[in-house]
């Protein structure tokens, strides 16, 4: 049911030229040269708010661990910000400076490292088929479909998602869509 909307949101998350913050159905981050469009009925959740919601969704043992070096720029959700939802944000866009991250010199290594993080976060983590090469805004990337179960205080949440990874120089871009 949501695959079409997720696909539209992912396709709109093109790594391209940008100039400012959220304006209507468009998010732009000039510093990171990224632009995200969303379906009309969905809502942007600013990075700070989405990060807070994401931390709350993590299992207690993971929540108290070391924070990731990536910066969550924005999330796109079916529910308006602040509305209780099954999972915080349906599409998230994060950026990371990889200069101080040894062993992550290629797009493949960056994607593998992020997928390992997901595997540590989700129970029953599984890749759903092979990783595929993609392009967005002229930048080569990798796409992986995955599934798993997120432990939550109110009970486990089955997750099926798509992870997109891009590199521009030593900057990594990770876009994740969850259904």
Please write out the topology.
Layout: H1 3-12, E1 13-14, E2 22-23, E3 26-29, E4 34-37, E5 43-46, H2 47-57, H3 60-63, E6 71-77, E7 91-97, H4 107-121, E8 123-127, E9 132-136, E10 139-150, E11 157-168, E12 171-178
Antiparallel strand pairs: 1-4, 2-3, 3-4, 5-6, 6-7, 7-12, 8-10, 9-10, 10-11, 11-12
Entry summary:
Helix content is 22%, strand content 40%. It is α+β, with helices and mostly antiparallel strands.
The helix/strand series, from N terminus to C terminus, equals HEEEEEHHEEHEEEEE
Mean pLDDT: 78
User: What is the helix tally?
Assistant: 4
Give the overall shape, derived from the CA principal axes. globular
Number of strands: 12
User: Which percent range fits the helix content?
Assistant: 10-25%
The profile of the biggest β sheet is: 8 strands, antiparallel
Fraction of residues in β-strands? 35-45%
User: SS-based structural class?
Assistant: alpha+beta
CA-to-CA gap between the ends? Answer: 9 Å
Uncertain parts = 1-20, 62-67
> Over the alpha carbons, how many angstroms does the gyration radius reach?
15 Å
Can you give a write-up of this model?
- This protein is an alpha+beta fold.
- The protein is built from 4 helices and 12 strands.
- Helix content is 22%, strand content 40%.
- The strands form 2 sheets. Strands 5, 6, 7, 8, 9, 10, 11 and 12 form an 8-stranded antiparallel β-sheet that branches. Strands 1-4-3-2 form a 4-stranded antiparallel β-sheet.
- β2 (22-23) and β3 (26-29) form a beta hairpin.
């Amino acid at each position: 049911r949501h695959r079409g909307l997720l696909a539209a949101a992912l396709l709109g998350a093109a790594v391209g030229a940008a100039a400012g913050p959220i304006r209507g159905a468009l998010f732009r981050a000039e510093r990171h040269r990224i632009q995200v469009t969303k379906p009309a009925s969905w809502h942007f959740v600013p990075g700070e708010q989405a990060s807070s919601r994401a931390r709350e969704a993590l299992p207690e043992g993971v929540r108290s661990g070391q924070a990731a070096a990536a910066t969550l720029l924005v999330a796109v959700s079916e529910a308006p910000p602040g509305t209780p939802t099954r999972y915080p944000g349906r599409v998230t866009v994060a950026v990371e400076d990889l200069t101080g991250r040894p062993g992550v010199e290629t797009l493949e290594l960056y994607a593998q490292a992020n997928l390992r993080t997901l595997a540590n976060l989700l129970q029953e983590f599984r890749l759903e088929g092979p990783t595929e090469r993609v392009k967005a805004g002229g930048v080569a990337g990798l796409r992986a479909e995955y599934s798993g179960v997120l432990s939550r205080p109110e009970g486990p949440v089955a997750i099926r998602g798509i992870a997109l990874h891009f590199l521009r120089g030593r900057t990594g871009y990770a876009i994740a869509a969850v259904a």
